[in-house]
Design goal:
It is a single chain. This protein is an alpha+beta fold. 39% of the residues lie in helices and 27% in strands. It contains seven helices and eight strands. Strands 1, 2, 3, 4, 5, 6, 7 and 8 form an eight-stranded antiparallel sheet that branches. It is elongated, with a radius of gyration of 33 Å. The termini are far apart.
């Protein structure tokens, strides 16, 4: 009888050990699988980031340019505007020397200084940028964006060498003004790159960027665009506006400090600097470089009278 009980106890003990060993083995395998899967996900995120950073083609856009600023007198004479205005204002388009814009620099500096002081109250500018960055459509692989550093600089833009030149439009003129801005305007942000496969927010890669504008210079053009003259009255009134554009030979120097990753960090990637600088240059080209321009509408003083006559 005792032998039978001992045998039963031994069998139960063996089964218990086997079950514990099986559970322990299963737990170990689950841990190993989870660990390997987690590491693979991080590696996939890093590979995708590196692939984008090091294989993205940085394309420099072709920009059509206006005629040379140093136009020969014989060529410029053929494109001179109506002599009536230049004669009455004593301005020789060909030989008049460039003018100083010191008065404009002082007035703009006062306006910019006031904006800087207003922006520093209760971190208004940082809060506004946070709201702008996180509103609208944000890619699903980019996490919330937080502004960590903001410095609007201490210097002011300097405009110089204002001159009047013949316009591309027949019988019209444009003003050309050089500008130079050398400072250290800095914006720092933190965000995350999110891997949403095989499930939502499967892996996260922290990203930190500090962008500084060091130098920005070029030539602005200001021109009054009049609606074309027609014999018949148009159904929709044609608008008159001031067009502000830039020449394509502008200079934009940036400094980019980058930090990608949490433990194994990639710091100051040159390719990332090239990408950001190219994207910003293309944005400026798309918005302001000739033939693109910023339009400022000139109000029609006789609009109400015209409506009454109709």
């Amino acid at each position: 009888m005792n032998d039978s009980l001992n045998t039963t106890e031994i069998v139960d003990l063996i089964q218990t050990h086997l079950i514990n060993a099986s559970c322990s083995k299963s737990s170990t395998l689950s841990f190993i699988k989870g660990f390997i899967l987690g590491q693979l996900s991080v590696i996939v995120v890093v590979i995708l980031v590196l692939r984008y950073l090091f294989t993205e083609d940085v394309k420099h856009r072709y920009i059509p340019s206006r005629p040379s600023l140093n136009t020969a007198p014989s060529v410029a004479a053929a494109a001179l505007p109506n002599d009536h205005i230049t004669l009455k204002t004593y301005y020789d388009v060909i030989h008049h020397p460039p003018e100083s814009t010191d008065w404009l620099n002082v007035l703009l500096a006062q306006v910019i200084l006031q904006y800087r002081q207003d922006a520093s109250i209760n971190n208004r500018m940082s809060c506004a940028l946070d709201s702008v960055f996180n509103s609208g459509v944000r890619p699903s692989f980019v996490g919330p964006i937080h502004v960590t550093e903001l410095n609007l600089g201490q210097e002011f833009p300097i405009f110089s060498r204002a001159r009047i030149r013949p316009s591309d439009e027949a019988g019209s003129t444009r003003a050309e003004i050089d500008f130079e801005y050398s400072d250290q305007v800095t914006l720092g942000i933190e965000t995350q790159l999110i891997l949403n496969w095989p499930k939502q927010a499967f892996a996260v890669l922290p990203v930190s960027l500090v962008l500084s504008v060091v130098r920005f210079s070029g030539t602005l053009t200001i021109e009054l665009i009049n609606p074309p003259e027609t014999t018949t009255k148009p159904k929709i009134p044609l608008e008159r506006y001031i067009a502000i554009s830039s020449y394509s030979d502008f200079i934009l120097d940036l400094q980019v400090q980058s930090l990608i990753g949490s433990k194994t960090k990639l710091e100051d990637i040159p390719k990332l600097t090239d990408l950001i600088q190219t994207k910003l240059r293309n944005m400026y080209i798309d918005k302001l470089v000739y033939p693109q321009f910023v339009k400022i509408k000139v109000p029609n003083m006789w609009k109400e009278q015209e409506e009454q006559e109709e």
